Amino acid sequence: MELIEELSGVPGMLRPFKAYLREAGLGAGDQVAYYGCPGTCTPFIELLGFAVRDLPVEQVYVPYVDEAQARAIRPVEGVGMQASSDVVRVDPKVIVLMGGLAMPGVPVTKEAVQSVVGAHPGAKIVGICFMEMFKKGGWLDAFDFDLIIDATLKPVRIWR
């Protein structure tokens, strides 16, 4: 993969993601499935979902790689996008792997993620991470990413 652009801030994550999904040729009802860690990845997934809320796609959150627990991501009036309590079937056209899955100590192996990705041949693979987590976890050669968005949190400033 080659670096094609360097952006900043939250729009720097969201705009390229939305542009990629627009260009992916998705049709009404095609599914975008986000795989990530409960709690830590979920807010970012809901933020990404909010950015693409006007696209005609179905959005699904899969905790870790447990597709039996997949939840619809839906708009909530006055709040934004939220993972619902509705369990849904997973049939993605686009798989979004969140970098939290590659972090040390997460109860998911790279091989388990590869197995789930392999169960959806033809799905495009997008990686969203912070601080080079896919590189640090050795995932760059393990997955055939179509797009990686790697954000940084440097510096984090604390004021009092």
Flag low-confidence runs. none
The main sheet orders its strands as 4-3-2-1-5-6-7
Largest sheet: 7 strands, mixed
Overall 3D shape: globular
Order of helices and strands: HEHEEEEHEHE
> What is the averaged pLDDT score?
95
Q: What is the CATH architecture annotation?
A: 3-Layer(aba) Sandwich
Question: Tally of extended strands?
Answer: 7
**CATH fold assignment:** Rossmann fold
Structural domain count: 1
InterPro entries: UCP004962 (IPR009183)
Protein name: DUF2124 domain-containing protein
Pfam families: DUF2124
Q: Would you give an account of this structure?
A:
The protein has 160 residues and is α/β, with parallel strands linked by helices. It is built from four helices and seven strands. It has a single domain, classed as Response regulator (Rossmann fold, 3-Layer(aba) Sandwich), CATH 3.40.50.2300. It has helices at 9-23, 42-51, 110-118, 133-136, and strands at 31-36, 58-63, 71-76, 80-87, 92-98, 124-130, 147-151. It is globular. The relative contact order is 0.17.
List keywords for this structure.
160 residues, UCP004962, 28% strand, DUF2124 domain-containing protein, alpha/beta
Compact description:
24% of the residues lie in helices and 28% in strands. The mean pLDDT is 95.
What are the SSEs and their pairings?
Blueprint: H1 9-23, E1 31-36, H2 42-51, E2 58-63, E3 71-76, E4 80-87, E5 92-98, H3 110-118, E6 124-130, H4 133-136, E7 147-151
